[in-house]
Design brief:
There is one protein chain. With 399 residues, this protein is of the alpha+beta class. It is built from six helices and 18 strands. Strands 1-2-3-4-5-6-7-9-10-12-13-14-15-16-17-18 form a 16-stranded antiparallel barrel. Strand 4 (145-158) and strand 5 form a beta hairpin. Helix 1 (2-18) packs antiparallel against helix 2. The chain is elongated and about 125 Å long.
Amino acid sequence: MVKKLKWAAPLVAAICLLTPLGAQAANDDLEALRQELKALREKVAELETKLEESRTAPAPGDRASVAAQEPKEEQKGVLSDLEKKVKIYGGVEVWGQGSSREVKADNRKTSSSEFKLRRAEVFMEAQINPWAKGLIHLLWEQDKTEPVDLDEGYILLGQTNDVPFYAMGGRIYPAIGHFESFLITDTITREVFETQATALEVGYANDWINLGLAAFRGTTHEISDGDDRKINSYFAHLGLATPEGFLGDLKLRGHIAYLSNMDSTFVRDQIANNAIQDLVGAWSVEIKAEYRIFALIAEYIRATDSFKAGALGYAPAEAKPEPYAFNLEAAVMPFEGWTFAARYEGSGDLYGQQPERQWGLGAKWEFIKDTTLGLEYMRGEYQNDDTRDLVTTQLAVKF
């Protein structure tokens, strides 16, 4: 339409000049026509602009298009801040397990097998600012934490490159033992000594050292406390480690800890009304070494004193148990995604609650990213001469 109007102006002017009208009349008419053409061109330009805007404008009710018009920098800023502050990660483990136990007392065998959701957990970690962090850990374990349990929840202040000192308060695992393993099943050390508490801890941590002191009110308390409930437990731990690359391909880590009140779930389940004549503590030592494709772990945990006779329900009435447990593991990772490991562990003064000696082999294969298959065999020998064969398979994912 615009092209046709461009040709119309000179054509009309030529016709007017050839008519028998006078020159002045022709000029007046031509000037009027030019003004009309100018106005018409401006109108056409305005219509073309509106047409172009209508092509790119969002349709009424189109939320995606409306959102696209919002300031991109503002959207990006909100998402970036959220990603920087909050991390969500976790995992799920499904087990298939079968066991066969030979009972020496009456010369019989018992067996069992099952599939179970061994663990489903979610961590939500928020870096509130450069000096403060919060963590929430939700956990579900079949036959242990039903429904979902708040496994950990704490606030950490400090422990940065600039400020190595820290203060941490909330529901945590007091650092009596690390319980690290290359295999599938939990170690005896963890089954017996793992402790949870709501505590306040202060300390110092950098690439070389991790030193902490803490206090909490244990569920296990002394009979002499009566109805009083007060902070009655404390722990201290010291960890040393070689920074990355300090010894080339060799990495070393050591950890020692002391806990004044052996307030583990295992012990609490054995004490009537959670009251005991005298509190008994525990201490632990752990060493880990890694060199290229090889790794070793050694851990030992022991009560600091004997429990009084009759204090622990699983022990004979006259016994004064002083529980201990140890774990030795070696692992090799010859191929990417593969881990082969062996374990030798044991315990004492547990009177059949856990194997006195146990050994086993296992393998894990990360066959696709963050998805692992595992297989493990354990042979356990108990203090009363019972034996157990335990086979465990695992499918695990992490995210």
